[in-house]
Structure formats: C-alpha cells, structure tokens
TrEMBL record:
SUPFAM superfamilies: Family A G protein-coupled receptor-like (SSF81321). The gene is LOC100153913. The keyword Transmembrane helix applies. It comes from Sus scrofa. It comes from the Eukaryota. Putative odorant or sperm cell receptor. Its main location: membrane. This is Olfactory receptor.
C-alpha cells in the first residue's frame, strides 16, 4: 500500500500552459489583463464605497449590488493576478495546494455570484411586477438571508466536489491546459479513470450553472413582458437596461455551460471563454449597474463635487 502512495504522489505542482506561447500575444495579454484588472479594482471598490457612504443608497438593491461588486473583485482575484505575474515572469508553475485553493475559491465565489444575480433579478422582478409588495418582500432580513444562504450553499457545493478530487492520484502528467486550475482540467491529469467523477461535476457544477441560468432568463422575460405590457414613455430605456443585464448574464454563464455541462473531455477552446468570466464581466457589471442607474449617477456627481471642494 505505502509503495502505491509514494508512486502516486509524484506530482506536487502543475504547469499552467496558459493562453498562448507567442511572445507578442503574451505581451498583449499582459497589458489586456493588467488594464482590465485595474478597471475591476477601481470600478468595484467605487461601488462598494459609494453604497456604504451614501445613505440614499442604503436599500436592498444597492446592498446586493455592493455584494456583487465585492464578489466580482474576489472572483477575478482568484486567477487574474497570478495570470499577470505568470506572463511577466514566464513562470507558470502552481503548487498542488495553491491549485486546490484556487479551485475552491473559484467555485465558492462563482457560485455566490450566481445566487446574487438571482437575488438581484428577483429584487427587480418584485420592484417592477409587484411594486405594492416590494417593501415587505425585499426586506433587510430577506436580503441578509439571501447573502448568508448563498455563501452556505456554495461552500457546501465546493466542498462536496472537493472531497472527490482532493485524493485523486497524480502520477505524471502535470500540464494544465489553461491559465488557472479547475476540476475538469485537473481530473484529466489523474492516473485513474475519472469518468464517474465527470458525472459528479456535471451533476453539481453543471446543474447549478444551468438551473441558475434558466431561472435568470425566465425572470428577465417576466420583467420584460411586464414592462412591455405597461408600455409608457420610457419603455425603450427599460429595454436597454434589461438587455444589458441579460447580455452580461449570457456572457457570464456561457463559459460555465461549456466547461461543466458539455460532455467531457473539454476542448482547449473553452479556456479562452473564461477570460470573459474573470476579466470582462467583472468590469461590465459595475459599468451597467452604475452608468445606467440614476441614483448611482447622482452619487457619482456628489463624489465629483466633494472632490473638487477638497482640491
Ligand atoms: C451585503 O449584503 C448584506 C445583506 O443585505 C448587507 O448587510 C451588506 O452591507 C452588504 N455588503 C456591502 C459591502 O454592502
């Protein structure tokens, strides 16, 4: 038995193949990720501080928005800083524990983000379709329960996949065909047949992604139909805002569908799709929720005025 263990635990680190091996492409990717990451930090922290400081924004919708911003920042921090430093130093090694930690946080934060998107769609649905019940339904207590439940469910989700993967034997292959670690790609390197595990991942991550995606699309359709039926003057404005939300939802979920719902083995194409989840939607969320929202714009002007006063 002990011989087996020794043989099996040969791999103590993985090599991340990254997105490209051309020098020019890597330089481009370096600047691309750097600029987007700075944008993610500034945009999302701006939202969090604005919501905390501005008492006009102390309502469920903005608390959820601030939570979403923190998660966007957290989710992209699981992969993008490492990606940037790998591109800079040309060293793509990740230790086994770091790889596992990365997977864990990606799944917890990605999952909480999904639940928050549902909470926000539900918030908008109640505000638009059931305005008279809004205050009683979206109470502060409801909001806190949403956030707490999201974290609990997603930690359980991540741990329940983890117990299957953490003890997999890795005995040789160590090249991860992506810029970060995730279950499907790590499983492909294990020295046992992981086909049962693939079902665990599909039934777990795959199911969560699909169920969340379809609930979101259905709630947005409800909202759109309600807005359309009441067609008043600012109909087109509501449509533009809602389509922006739907676009971001589709952008966010497509990569997850490809990786977790699609039959294995994964193509190496889907690693490019995940640039969207880690670098692009975390920038788009603050942009669409801020610029298309009157209260946030007022808060921004307020900030600008205060800043001028200080200077
Ligand atoms: C996240 O949501 C909870 C529950 O609504 C809220 O109490 C908390 O202030 C929010 N976090 C931020 C940073 O706004």
């Amino acid at each position: 038995e002990s011989m087996d263990r020794v043989n099996y635990s040969v791999v103590s680190e993985f090599v991340l193949i990254g997105l490209s091996n051309s020098w020019e492409m890597n330089l481009f990717l370096f600047w691309f990720f750097l600029v987007f990451y700075v944008g993610i930090i500034l945009g999302n922290l701006f939202i969090v501080f604005t919501v905390i400081i501005d008492s006009h924004l102390h309502s469920p919708m903005y608390f959820l928005l601030a939570n979403l911003s923190l998660l966007d920042l957290g989710l992209s921090s699981t992969t993008v800083p490492k990606m940037i430093s790998d591109l800079l130093t040309n060293c793509n090694v990740i230790s086994f524990p770091k790889c596992m930690t990365q997977i864990f946080f990606i799944h917890v934060m990605g999952g909480v983000e999904m639940v928050l998107l549902i909470a926000m769609a539900y918030d908008r649905y109640t505000a638009i379709c059931k305005p008279l019940h809004y205050l009683s339904v979206m109470s502060r207590k409801m909001c806190v329960s949403f956030v707490v439940a999201a974290w609990m469910v997603e930690i359980i989700h991540a741990v329940s996949q983890f117990v299957f993967v953490i003890n997999l034997p890795f005995c040789g292959p160590d090249k991860v065909d992506s810029f970060y670690c995730d279950f499907p790609r790590i499983m492909k390197l294990a020295c046992v047949d992981t086909y049962k595990l693939e079902f665990v991942i599909i039934a777990n991550s795959g199911f969560i992604s699909m169920a969340t995606f379809f609930s979101l699309i259905i709630s947005y359709i409800f909202i759109l139909v309600t807005v359309w039926k009441r067609s008043s003057g600012d109909l087109s404005k509501a449509f533009v805002t809602l389509s922006a939300h739907i676009t971001v939802v589709i952008l966010f979920f497509m990569p997850c569908m490809f990786l977790y719902v699609w039959p294995f083995p994964t193509t190496s194409l889907d690693k490019y799709f995940f640039i969207v989840d880690f670098a692009i939607t975390p920038v788009l969320n603050p942009a669409i929720y801020t610029l298309r929202n009157k209260d946030m714009r007022v808060a921004m002007k307020d900030w600008a005025n205060r800043f001028q006063f200080c200077v």
